[in-house]
């Protein structure tokens, strides 16, 4: 395997809100098997970038191209979020957005929704194949919960889980949509060091065992430097650097914009 | 005691009809925070379609309960088509608009549909055939509860159980609950939210049509304006129970039905609305979110 397969290719992405340019011609690539990170000070436009890629915003300029393996390239610009998800790209949010009044298992099952064939009518009639499909969903969802270590909470309401567990449930739900690329928006936000370490392992496992490429936004520098390569750095909507963790650490622009002032208090 | 029981069952019948219509309000509100003021009109259209179909069937020699069933099925299909179209042309284009805009659109559609039926049919009260036959086995208790009441009670009860199963057990039900809790997140797990909203309108319209057929057959007449009063009452029931809550709509409907029935029976039928709305005011003072409603904090 000489050249790694390119999965996501973003070219010159620009997003304007009225007169404010939140993202300014940012280009970025995620290859197969990678854990890429997008870092930068608060307000740099990282989440806006995610929102453009996942179809929540329609970018002003630029191209977002998805290259699924063995399928034709798709341009994601302006697609609805559910279409983007169907194409194999899932995400989590900075603040927890679980369906809090549903059980843990149901939260994961709902992610499977877009991968099942039964339409509205058939799912009401519930013929044999629909029931079998339901049973398979329950089982595969349960397997997913095991992988993130939540199997014992399957029938608990999502809102009753501890914080770290809710985060992992969000990841499980995103994985239930069977993505080949997973976008994580600050997965470690608000976690204690123990939970962060567990998350660290979980992300590596997803990458290695499930063969899902990952693009994450994170402020926890230890986590980022540990697991991700390459790293992209944004500031004021622009991409100011990219490269391996070592290159990023040594990049004077990055130190000036970010590491020099922020890491001390951020860690 | 018999008198009390009669009022109790009368209130239960009335209340279950309110509940049936209130479910349409509460489901739509739960999912897109819109008071669908045209919902009462769907109910009225359901009744009219049943009247027309029942007339045609009678000409072709059908009789008894088969007319009721076939007319009801026709009314449901017709009403579903109206509900779907209504959402598509009057609410979907306003999905991103401030909340008042679809509300005005809903009031507009309500007035439009009333006048459409007024012009297409008539402004007079039309007699509605009594489609519910008198069962023989009901005769011993006929002074307390009649056959039409029994049919209404059983129909609404079965409908509500089916609805509960649909929402709790099926895939689309799960998708509806997810959409209700967080619409943009539902999109991100791959749910086609527009389809789910359409489906919600279709289900609500079907319930309204069932209510329309049952009431029209029970009362024995229809008019283009019946949707308005039924709509207001059902809306009251939905608010009483806590708008957005499905068990709340059922409970609200029953409480409203009993209040009216007992007020009419023990005080005077002139005052039934006074008691009904007085109760609404009282409950909203004590529990502003309704009996089963949750005070929802706005999440940022």
TrEMBL record, chain A:
Classification via PANTHER family: AMINO ACID ABC TRANSPORTER ATP-BINDING PROTEIN, CONSERVED COMPONENT OF ABC TRANSPORTER FOR NATURAL AMINO ACIDS-RELATED
SUPFAM superfamilies for this protein: P-loop containing nucleoside triphosphate hydrolases (SSF52540)
GO molecular function terms noted in the UniProt entry: ATP binding; ATP hydrolysis activity; L-isoleucine transmembrane transporter activity; L-phenylalanine transmembrane transporter activity; L-valine transmembrane transporter activity
Record flagged with keyword ATP-binding: yes
Keywords associated with the record: ATP-binding, Nucleotide-binding, Transport
Transmembrane intervals: none
Keyword ATP-binding: yes
GO BP annotations, alphabetical order: D-alanine transmembrane transport; L-alanine transport; L-isoleucine import across plasma membrane; L-valine import across plasma membrane
Native source species: Malonomonas rubra DSM 5091
GO cellular component, one term: plasma membrane
Listed name of the protein: Branched-chain amino acid transport system ATP-binding protein
Domain ABC transporter: 8-261
UniProtKB/TrEMBL annotation, chain B:
Name this protein carries in UniProt: Amino acid/amide ABC transporter membrane protein 1, HAAT family
Major subcellular site: membrane
Subcellular location: Cell membrane
Source domain of life: Bacteria
Keywords: Amino-acid transport, Cell inner membrane, Cell membrane, Membrane, Transmembrane, Transmembrane helix, Transport
Family: Belongs to the binding-protein-dependent transport system permease family. LivHM subfamily.
CDD domains: TM_PBP1_LivH_like
GO BP, one annotated term: L-isoleucine import across plasma membrane
Pfam families on file: BPD_transp_2
A cellular component annotation (GO) from this entry: plasma membrane
GO MF entries: L-isoleucine transmembrane transporter activity; L-leucine transmembrane transporter activity; L-phenylalanine transmembrane transporter activity; L-valine transmembrane transporter activity
Protein's membrane topology: Multi-pass membrane protein
Annotated TM spans: 15-35, 42-63, 69-91, 103-121, 141-167, 196-219, 274-293
InterPro entries from the UniProt entry: ABC_transp_permease, BCAA_transport_permease
């Amino acid at each position: 395997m000489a050249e790694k397969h390119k999965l996501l290719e973003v070219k010159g992405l620009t997003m304007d809100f009225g007169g404010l340019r939140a993202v300014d011609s940012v280009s970025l690539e995620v290859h197969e098997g990678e854990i890429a990170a997008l870092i930068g000070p608060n307000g740099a436009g990282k989440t806006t970038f995610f929102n453009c890629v996942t179809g929540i915003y329609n970018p002003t300029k630029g191209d977002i191209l998805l290259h699924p393996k063995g399928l034709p390239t798709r341009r994601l610009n302006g697609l609805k979020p559910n279409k983007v998800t169907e194409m194999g790209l899932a995400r989590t949010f900075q603040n927890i957005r679980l369906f809090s009044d549903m059980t843990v298992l149901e939260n994961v099952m709902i992610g499977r929704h877009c991968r099942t064939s039964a339409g509205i009518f058939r799912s009401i009639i519930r013929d044999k194949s629909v029931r079998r499909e339901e049973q398979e969903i329950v089982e595969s969802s349960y397997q997913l919960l095991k992988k993130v270590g939540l199997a014992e909470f399957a029938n608990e309401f999502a809102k009753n889980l501890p914080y770290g567990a809710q985060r992992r449930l969000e990841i499980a739900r995103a994985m239930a949509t069977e993505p080949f690329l997973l976008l994580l928006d600050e997965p470690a936000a608000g976690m204690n060091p123990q939970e962060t370490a567990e998350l660290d392992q979980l992300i590596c496992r997803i990458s290695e065992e499930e063969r899902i490429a990952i693009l994450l936004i994170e402020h926890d520098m230890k986590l980022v430097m540990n697991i991700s390569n390459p790293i992209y750095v944004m500031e004021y909507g622009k991409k100011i650097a990219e490269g391996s963790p070592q290159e990023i650490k040594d990049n004077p622009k990055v130190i000036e914009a970010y590491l020099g002032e922020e890491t001390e208090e951020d860690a | 005691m018999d008198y009390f029981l009669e009022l109790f069952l009368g209130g239960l019948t009335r209340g279950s009809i309110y509940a049936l219509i209130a479910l349409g309000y509460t489901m739509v509100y739960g999912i897109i925070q819109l008071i669908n003021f045209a919902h009462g009109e769907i109910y009225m259209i359901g009744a009219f379609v049943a009247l027309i179909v029942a007339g045609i069937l009678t000409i072709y020699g059908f009789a008894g309960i088969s007319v009721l069933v076939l007319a009801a099925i026709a009314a449901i299909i017709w009403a579903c088509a109206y509900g779907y179209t209504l959402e598509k042309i009057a609410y979907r284009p306003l999905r991103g608009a401030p909340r008042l805009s679809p509300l005005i659109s809903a009031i507009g559609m309500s007035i439009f549909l009333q006048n459409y039926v007024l012009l297409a049919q008539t402004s007079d009260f039309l007699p509605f055939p009594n489609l519910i036959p008198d069962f023989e086995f009901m005769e011993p208790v006929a002074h307390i509860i009649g056959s039409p009441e029994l049919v209404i009670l059983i129909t609404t009860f079965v409908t509500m159980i089916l609805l509960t199963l649909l929402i709790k057990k099926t895939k689309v039900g799960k998708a509806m609950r997810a959409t209700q809790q967080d619409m943009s997140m539902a999109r991100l797990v791959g749910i086609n939210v527009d389809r789910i909203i359409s489906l919600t309108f279709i289900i609500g319209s079907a319930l309204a049509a069932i209510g329309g057929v049952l009431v029209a057959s029970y009362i024995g007449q229809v008019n283009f304006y019946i949707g308005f009063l039924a709509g207001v009452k059902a809306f009251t029931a939905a608010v009483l129970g806590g708008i957005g809550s499905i068990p709340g709509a059922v409970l609200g409907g029953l409480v409203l039905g009993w209040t009216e029935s007992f007020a009419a029976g023990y005080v005077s039928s002139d005052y039934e609305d006074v008691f009904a709305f007085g109760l609404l005011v009282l409950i909203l003072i004590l529990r502003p979110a309704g009996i089963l409603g949750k005070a929802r904090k706005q999440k940022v």
